[in-house]
Amino acid sequence: MVNTQQTITIPLRPSLWNPKTASALAVLATLGLAAYQAGLGRPGAELINLGGWPQLREFLAASLRPDLSPEFVVLMGRAAMVTLAYAVLGTALSVGLGLVGGLLSSAVWWQTVLPGEASGLRRCLWLGVRGLLAFPRAIHELIWGLVLLQVLGLNPLVGVLAIAIPFGAIVAKVFSEILDETPPEPLHALLNAGTPPLAAFVYGLLPQALPNLLSYTFYRFECSLRASAVLGIIGAGGLGYEIFLSLQSLRYEQLWTGFYALIVLNGAVDAWSALVRRRMGFTSRLDINRKPGDVSSRPAHKAPRQDGFLKLSWVGAIAAIPLSWWWLRLDMGVLWSARTQRLLGELLGTSWPPMPTWAELVNLARLSWLTVAMSMVAIALAGLFGILVSLPAAQNFLLPGGLLHPIGQRGESAWIAYTLLGLSRLVLLISRAIPAPIWALVLLYMLFPGVLPGALALALHNFGILGRLMAEVNENLDDRPVRALSTLGVSPSAIVAYGILPQNLGRFLAYILYRWEVCLRETVIVGLVGAGGLGRLLTEQISSFDYSGVMITLGVFVVLTFGVDAVSQRLRGVLRE
Questions:
Q1: Half-sphere exposure (Cβ direction) of 564: Cα atoms closer than 13 Å
Q2: Which parts of the chain register pLDDT below 70?
Q3: Is the Cβ–Cβ distance between 136 and 166 less than 8 Å?
Q4: How far apart are CA 199 and CA 244, in angstroms?
Q5: How many CB atoms lie within 10 A of CB 181?
Q6: Residue 513 and residue 279: Cα distance in Å, rounded?
Q7: What pTM was estimated for this model as a whole?
Q8: Max Cα–Cα distance, the chain, nearest Å
């Protein structure tokens, strides 16, 4: 008799304890401690300042009656041109620096120019360039502005260089990652055919990476516009400077005029950037956490076509550089003048060598934890609300024919969908257009100084940025699983829970982690207006000309930034697995 029984192997249930679970629990525990440090849920914590509510009501009421007198409108128009000129020149210079730095800090470049057995030298050069670029990007552009202000005085070059130096290092880091992730097969083919390394790099790798490089350049221009508004707080001019003056003098009508001008300027640049990217086939501003073989988020390559709008945009972008230079009346000679060299020598002489005491180190450790707590609470709130608002802010969700309103359904409520789309995008625009220090000053009307107002100010600003990036992820979603669920009659909430979030949550978390690195740098600028953390200490040291203390605080902040950057990269790596 033949035994026909077969052994059936039942797959083991996957372990609940894995790197993703461990990372999630560690993040939640640390976030809970950060929220407690900010005063949320802590007994006896004084958070709300009831004495500031009358002023807050007066501030909000002024939004309905902005100062529209011709003289002030002309003044704000000129300030807007200054802000735009800073953004144009800062972006142009940072992209130029970023291209060189990105080339030299990419692994594929050193593998191309130093092939064969020179792996040790190649790694040393690669790590050396990356380490050199790590310092300038760890320090916020506002701090660079304060330092340059001590050397160059009230000169327009302060605003341009304060944007270009840290942004150039940031662009170099992102460009190097784009180059390293670009398929190297065409490059290797040219090298094997005997093409010189530089020519092989230019013709074999850069054409493939160019769409991502251009797409990120547009995103960086929008960041430069927001940074140029922030620099107005230290006296660099522009809309930020006028807004800060109006806030200091409690002229709320003029303050709201500045807000509206800033919102209109950011909205115009955002719309232009989105239209240019769409016509060029770019699907998103920022593409991070892409898995190998994932092409859904890469820019779509369109066949070249004659497009008058694109031609006009490129001509305008090129012409904007000399026009901005002329508008700001820049004089490069001030950089090597005798006065600049003398002030720079005095600054370095009084700040070096830094010799911290034990008490100072203990205080710095305490403030470092407050700074990290502020950034964690801020990015958690920004990420949570960004995910929620990104759904109605995406064009392919609620509109007729969208994922939650398929073709064939009745469309009597289409006006509601269009209204929600417009309102959600307006909220995101206002949130990211107003600089975080301005949000912090407004929140200090109703909250006591500390970690919480700084965290909320950063959350408001980053909520607008994250919500817009997440809305683009939603718009680029593979809609086949969602359409299948919709065909089965699944409810809209279930479609979101089972068809949308599982696809996009990994990328959402990657964006949150990326912005966390940026958010930590921004804790300095809300600290400068009294929100607490290392930024507040830095303000006190700068106002008392304690440049040795400034150097120590900046050093601690750089170390802190490197630590957060390493944790963020590790968590993003876990998400890719």
A1: 28
A2: 1-18, 44-45, 116-119, 283-306, 351-353, 401, 405-413, 528-531, 575-577
A3: yes
A4: 50
A5: 15
A6: 30
A7: 0.84
A8: 105
